[in-house]
């Protein structure tokens, strides 16, 4: 009897909510490919910059390619991230489903709305109504993230072409020399590659905080949607 009552109560509560597809399968795949790639690239990038694995016994046999293995994984996941970033860029600019993200441009320069959003994150006001899927703070955070993405991609491809001179490396080599000249030398290309990495790390922490905050206080499955694709909105309300 208690189980039946609990079931009826659950159905009554859920009846006040409307479910809908928030993220398509392609959108979710690119998100997780990008997320996994970022963490692997950070880990392998730290090792490439400062190799810390040493061997007690020195050997002349060419079998200890630790640096090479780290570089291989760095390159593989680097190109995986490039694919995911390009997909998301085209999604925003050209895909029909991206119109909800493009609608966020209408609120991006709304200072009053941005201040209301700050109040929401400080727990002193309600979530403001937005025209798109991103509030102004989210929009500019993601905009900055993609500036840093393309910065690290450009410098990364330049560093790649300086080491691998055949195939794709040869294709990017003229571009790499232009990038090297623009930054004032290969050492500065590497330096800016590291700077972009730290900026991405910063934005990733902010992104995770915002996602968890909205999931806890929004109570609409906004964080669950990146797994299931579904988000819940209370009937008669939109964010």
What does this molecule look like?
The chain has 239 residues and is mainly α. It folds into two domains: 23-54 and 63-102; 113-229, no CATH class. The protein is built from ten helices and two strands. A two-stranded antiparallel ribbon has the order 1-2. Helix 2 packs antiparallel against helix 3 (66-94), helix 3 crosses helix 7 and helix 7 (136-163) crosses helix 8 (168-183). The longest helix is centred in the C-terminal third of the chain and has 33 residues, at 186-218. The protein starts with a helix and ends in a 5-residue tail after the last strand. 16% of the residues are buried. Mean pLDDT is 83; it is low at 7-19. The chain crosses the membrane at residues 32-53, 73-95, 139-159, 195-217. One of its GO terms (cellular component) is plasma membrane.
Number of helices: 10
> How much is the average pLDDT?
83
* Major beta-sheet overview: 2 strands, antiparallel
Gyration radius over CA: 23 Å
Structural class: mainly alpha
Q: Indicate the multimeric state.
A: single chain
- Kindly state the percentage of residues in helix: 55-70%
Number of domains: 2
- Give me the strand/helix succession: HEHHHHHHHHHE
The unreliable regions are 7-19
Distance between the termini: 38 Å
Percent in strands: under 5%
Total strands: the figure is 2
* Shape annotation: elongated
Strand order of the largest sheet: 1-2
């Amino acid at each position: 009897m208690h189980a039946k009552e609990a079931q009826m109560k659950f159905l009554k509560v859920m009846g006040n909510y409307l479910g809908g597809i928030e993220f398509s399968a392609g959108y979710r795949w690119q998100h997780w490919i990008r997320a996994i790639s970022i963490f692997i690239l950070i880990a392998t990038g730290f090792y490439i910059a400062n190799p810390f694995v040493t061997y007690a016994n020195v050997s002349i046999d060419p079998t200890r390619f630790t640096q090479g293995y780290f570089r291989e994984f760095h390159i593989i996941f680097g190109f995986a991230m490039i694919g995911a970033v390009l997909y998301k860029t085209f999604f925003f600019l050209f895909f029909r489903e991206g119109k909800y993200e493009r609608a966020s441009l209408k609120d991006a320069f709304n200072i009053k709305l941005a201040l209301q959003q700050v109040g929401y994150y400080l727990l002193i006001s309600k979530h403001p109504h937005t025209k798109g899927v991103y509030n102004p703070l989210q929009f500019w955070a993601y905009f900055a993230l993609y500036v840093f993405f393309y910065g690290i991609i450009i410098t990364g491809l330049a560093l790649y072409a300086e080491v691998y001179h055949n195939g794709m490396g040869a294709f990017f080599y003229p571009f790499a020399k232009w990038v090297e000249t623009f930054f004032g030398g290969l050492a500065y290309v590497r330096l800016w590659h590291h700077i972009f990495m730290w900026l991405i790390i910063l934005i990733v922490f902010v992104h995770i905080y915002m996602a968890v905050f909205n999931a806890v206080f929004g109570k609409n499955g906004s964080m669950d949607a990146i797994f299931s694709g579904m988000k819940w909105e209370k009937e008669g309300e939109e964010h």
